[in-house]
Amino acid sequence: MSISGLVIHTRPENTECAKSALAELDGIEIHATTLDGRLIVTLDQPDDAKAAETLSRLHELDGVLSASLVYNYFEQDPAEKEHAP
Questions:
Q1: How far is CA 42 from the centre of its chain?
Q2: Which domains does the chain have, with CATH numbers?
Q3: 80 pLDDT more than 70
């Protein structure tokens, strides 16, 4: 499990376009939007690889200027822990 906190920057006039694009991605939840175009977002993915892939995709979305990782929490799946050497 990987949970990340992100700040996504957009131009204020592009914020709604970016929010629509973000809503189409799995594991994204928008918590707040500022008037100057920042979005406070969490990204919940099953593992760090999928989280990194999604973070890379954020930079390609229409209206997104940047996406900054602010916080990340990773925990190995308990089933995987049992089978680890």
A1: 5
A2: 2-83 (3.30.70.920)
A3: no
